[in-house]
Queue: 3 jobs
Job 1
Amino acid sequence: MTVDLSEALSASAELSMMRDEDPLGHATEAVAGLSAGWQPSPNLQFDAGANVGLNHRSPDVELYAGISRRF
């Protein structure tokens, strides 16, 4: 789910479950994430977010940030 907080700022929430079908042993990962993006100009955007594992097979916490520039 993504919400526009203003013309330049947006936020997103996400739930994800992934299951592999490895014949030697199945694994399921469950993750919740929050992210935000700020676009101060039409050609520049900053992003940041966090993912949190919801079960023992998922990574505990993943943090990320990014910059995108159109040229």
Job 2
Amino acid sequence: TQNSPPAVTNEPASPTAGAAGGSSYAVVWVGESLVVRQPAGITSSQVAALPADQRGIGVTGQSTLLGSSTWLEIFLPVGGTGWVNGYNLTEDVDPDSFCQDPRLVDLANRFIHAMQIQSGDELAQLASPNRGLIIRHDWWNPEVVTDLGALPHLFQEAAELNWGINRDSGLAITGSFGDVILPQLLDVFSVAPPFSCNRIATGSTAEQVSWPPEYTNLNFIAFHRAAPSPTSLNWRTWALGIEYVNGSPYLAVLVQYRGEI
């Protein structure tokens, strides 16, 4: 796969340096704020609350496993320490540095190739070790989570999943990944599209388009397939949320955007 010729090109200027992660963290997957507790645990006392866009969080290196959740001890911006669920932290990567990371092109090419040959094994190699793969049929529809261990079988899995509702018709969107999501991904990747960084290209639509607020600190790349005419709703964009783990980029989230009435 890695030896395949490039299928995409980066829309910004030629990358010059890799993004670095691991020295600090940022808040993710919260609504308005992330509660900090002392000691670790959801029943412990609240000692602070970090806003959903908080970045530059330092960790002490102390962690503890509570049930299935790993809690991390952090340094508070105002001084002192507290504990948060590690699920709500991600390595803090500056958006400008992210967009100059040359590894994004390779990640994008490998993802497209995995879709085209329907290889769950290749997809699993790209997915976040911390989260697996999270898919949203539309940015406002709920998350559908596939654990890392289930990704190798994603294309063959026949079980119907609930992807949310169609806002135009009000009907539920149900079906397997292969029946519902894959055709809409391949619709964008039927040509060799350039990708944009931290920017969502759109077409004509009556509804607001936004990167989900709970992903504020998660950088992304996006692929856009334009509509045949400026007034047509028949356009589609897929955004790929990228999470850094030990300084390396992985695919964490897939979010679709499309024209709506």
Job 3
Amino acid sequence: MSSAAAPPLRQARRRTGRARAWTLGFAALALAGAVVGAGAGAFEIPLAQVLGGLVEPLGLAGPLAPGARAGAVLWSLRLPRVALSLVVGAGLSVAGLLLQALFRNPLASPQVIGVSSGAALGAGAAIVLGGAATLGQTPVALPLAAFAGALATAAFVLRLGRRGGRSSVASLLLAGIVANSLCGAILGLLFFVADDAQLRSLTFWTLGSLGGATWPVVGLVGLAVAALVAGAQGLARWLDLLQLGEEEALLLGVPVARLERGVVALASLAVGAMVAFTGVIGFLGLVLPHLARLLLGPGHRALVPGTAALGAAVLVWADLLCRTALAPAELPIGILTTLLATPFFLLLLHRGGGRP
């Protein structure tokens, strides 16, 4: 190896090592939030009993095993909610990362370009027009309706955002505004015609909540998010090349049209599944990919797991704050994430001179 090639190689290794360290740190933060969140709430479970309950199925709890009531709360309420917050945080963040890479636009996110609104509209239509007032009655219909709404909205924005065969930033943003406005108007009409039970469910979608977490829900959403993360990791090299521009990517062998369809389908599937069970949780898919790029660098092979771990850590701690800050009342998670993310995003804009 020549001496001229050695410094770039060492720099690449340092970047890789730094990205791994940050990812492990995010994962540790998420794990700590999960353990703390499993014990915190109206019914407090000591940390030792939480740890004992986690290993009790393996027969290792011993004197740390929680009582019957604490064990029921832990496994039926707390752990499903903690698991759902980890999965949804990872999924929303990676979906935002994929959309930003696809459109080569730092303002793209499931919420900004209307995918979240489309998913909420699909679920809302199933509630009001299909009579699916509760999650338990239609465990399949709601995610399917939300997925259809997300996919239709994403396809609409993607088509309008292209000019002359290329994605236009201005057209993309305008199409996202149109999609959000249209979905919001139709959701408003659904609010107007809904009965009391349907109104409560529709309010859930607009504010966001992890209160409907159950193990079947965690399984369904987890499968969608696992497919999203695995697909994103598999597309990492193509996404890196796409940042050079569509023409350059085509010359380097990237099937741009197929990549666009795959990213839109993956993001829509995951966002549809998440919104169907948690409602709209804003700004995670917009802000967290920015923070991940600042800390991990531009390479998507490192960005995908790092962004997933960061999203999981942020949402599990945000949900813990929602459950405890105003106890016994619970703050909707969508409100808190927007309140926390907005000043951080403004700081990024300020430090970047308007180029996030």
